[in-house]
Specification:
Elements lengths: L18 E8 L6 E8 L5 H4 L4 E4 L3 E3 L2 H4 L26 E4 L4 E3 L10 H18 L7 E6 L1 H12 L5 E5 L23 H7 L12 E6 L10 H12 L4 E6 L9 H19 L1
Parallel strand pairs: 3-5, 3-7, 4-6, 7-8, 8-9, 9-10
Antiparallel strand pairs: 1-2, 2-5
Helix pairs in contact: 3-4
Length: 279
């Protein structure tokens, strides 16, 4: 008969039984099919337990057509691996986490993707919120966060949408005038597309940010476009405008955070921010 020949302990026992679901939904403005990987605490059911505080963690991507933008890029059958800086840590704290929900920025028929960046970004994020509410998982206790371009996304969403109670931006760029020769897939210069650069810069819309924003940045970030100055200036703008914001600078860290002390401090700041503003 069959017999067990190996025994491997779960590397992260706190995540045993965590529910992982691929959810699909549509963007209201154009019907584009979107998806995301939803993680829920073990044994959670919305009918019995009600709604949960939710964290959306995302990173926008550019596409040339809607067909490519609607592709599913993950599988619910993959083993749940949680690196130290992953948002999935908060599933073990009782949160619902929608990881990497689609945030496609589409430019079809020769149109430039970023000419409608904000509108597409907001429509995608709000479609995700609508789906979580429809499922009975979320109420208004939803935070949004991201790293690098995801941090840029977060600040833009707080400036142009009122669906989020708090935001977390790690190692982001917020003023596109400081990256005048292009960024991500944007190949036009500031002088060729000044309106796109201005509209996409959350720094220029800091007066519209109402939700609390936590900014984290590595002191020695050498990634082109995300120098620490970006977070420092956005923080100064928000505080000058009377907004709720906090800036955390991690000593000696670059674009990603490596030291145990830095990662633990990052986790502490994120946990405190979410608990304070989502309750």
């Amino acid at each position: 008969g069959a017999r067990q020949v190996t025994r491997v302990e779960h590397p992260q026992p706190a995540l045993l039984g965590v529910q992982k679901r691929l959810i699909k939904y549509k963007r209201g403005t154009d019907g584009l099919e979107l998806s995301g990987m939803l993680y829920l605490p073990a044994d959670y059911t919305p009918d019995r337990d009600g709604t949960l505080p939710c964290l959306l963690w995302a990173y926008p991507q550019e596409f040339k057509n809607m067909s490519a933008a609607s592709q599913v890029q993950d599988s619910p059958h993959r083993f749940i691996r949680v690196p130290p800086t992953s948002p999935l840590l908060w599933v073990a704290r009782g949160y619902a986490v929608l990881d990497d929900p689609s945030m496609p920025i589409v430019g079809e028929s020769g149109a430039e993707e970023n000419d409608n960046f904000v509108e597409q970004l907001v429509a995608s994020a709000e479609a995700a919120c609508d789906e979580l509410e429809r499922m009975g998982i979320a109420d208004d206790r939803v935070a949004v966060g991201g790293h690098s371009y995801g941090a840029f996304m977060t600040a833009n969403l707080l400036a142009h949408s009122n669906r989020f109670k708090a935001g977390i931006g790690r190692s982001g760029a917020y003023n596109r005038l400081l990256t005048p020769f292009g960024f991500q897939s944007e190949e036009r210069t500031l002088w060729e597309a000044p309106q796109a650069y201005l509209q996409m810069s959350p720094f220029m819309h800091a007066d519209k940010v109402d939700a609390p924003l936590l900014l984290l940045h590595g002191e020695s970030d050498n990634n082109p476009g995300t120098f620490p100055l970006q977070s420092e200036r956005l923080f100064q703008a928000l505080k000058g405008l009377g907004k709720t914001a906090k800036l955390v600078v991690l000593p000696l860290e670059s674009h990603g955070y490596a030291a145990k002390e830095s990662v633990l401090h990052m986790c502490y700041e994120m946990e405190a921010w979410l608990e304070k503003h989502l309750g």
